[in-house]
Amino acid sequence: MEKDLLRFGDENATHRLIMLHGWGADAEDLLPLGKVLVEEIGVSFEVCSLEAPESHPEGVGRQWYGLFPPDWASVDNSVDQLQARLKLLGSDKIPLENSFLFGFSQGGAMALSAGCELPLAGLIASSAYPHPGWSPPSNGPSILLTHGKKDEIVPSNAADKISSELNMRNYCFELCWFEGGHEIPPHMLNRFQDFMKTNIK
After folding, report:
1. Residues 83-91, mean pLDDT to the nearest whole number
2. Residues 6+ away with beta carbon under 8 Å from 45
3. H-only helix segments in the chain
């Protein structure tokens, strides 16, 4: 299995939660959150946190592609690479149909672009944005979007754009707003868990 990921959980797990970190973070960033999310779900989960392939320009952390300034030309290749990594995970003992994908910020944008084309159990995009020209296929996985009303990093209209695209393709999705900025507030954890419980297969 690939080396740029962190794993946690029972080796006999039947389900998987895959975490995609934001710009400037790394695989360790969301692993603690993933461990909390799979508690009390009712089935055995493995948590995998993937590390973005590129070094951050400031020398600390990672990035899925250049963002300041945005290197939109490299997005398609980055998404293809991520899909290949996700399919590789799905070829292991836990199929994609039993896997949830969680992405924050840039990781959320990557989750939407790569995950909507895969047979996932569900997808969570937190403080995410749509890539330019993003057009999800019809009949993708159930999706939970969360976004802070006072987000100054990824403005709230990004969530509206994602919702519009999903609406046009009749996705089963929910957009949950919260009072706050570019963050994952603790009070949203129950909402994440409820979404996972509802979509477990």
Report:
1. 93
2. 9, 10, 13, 15, 16, 17, 38
3. 27-37, 75-90, 106-115, 157-168, 189-199
The two structure tokens encoding residue 136: 């999800």
Conformation bin of residue 60: beta by default, left when phi > 0, alpha when psi is -120 to 50: beta
Condensed to tens digits (0 to 9), the pLDDT of residues 109-161 reads 999 999 999 999 999 999 999 999 999 999 899 999 999 999 999 999 999 99
Instruction: Report residue 187 as tokens.
Output: 């009070």
C-alpha atoms less than 13 angstroms from C-alpha of 30 in its C-beta half-sphere:
32
Planar angle of CA 42, 43, 49, nearest 5 degrees: 115
| The model's pTM | 0.96
Mean pLDDT on 92-104: 95
Distance of alpha carbon 144 from the chain centroid: 10
Whole-number pLDDT of residue 197: 96
Q: What span, in angstroms and rounded, lies between the C-alpha atoms of 190 and 47?
A: 17
- Tell me which residue of 121, 82, 114 sits closest to 99, measured CA to CA: 121
Q: Is 105 left (phi over 0), alpha (psi -120 to 50) or beta?
A: left
